[in-house]
Structure prediction request, 103 residues.
Amino acid sequence: MSAAYTRESWKDAYSELLRVSQAMGLPEEIGKVIAGELRTERCIRRMTAYLLQARPRSMEEIADEMMAIIDQRNTWAAKKEAQEANARYNEWLNSPMRFEEEE
Prediction:
């Protein structure tokens, strides 16, 4: 899968999730809510793959997986934010300007 996500590829992922959820007998609104909560194309595609492979038998199982995907996304985002902050801090530590500020 390409790392370049576009509006069109997001729409395709959204449509696929709706199609799969409806094929499972879920109302269209449930698919829309799930996609809205997941937000990103990557998360929507992961949920679609889960629905196709696991064939969950209850809404609780679907909700649990949706929450797990969201939690993983949030953990990844927090990790990236911390890495960027650490990179900026290290840049400052190694900056010649830092030594000028201390004088």
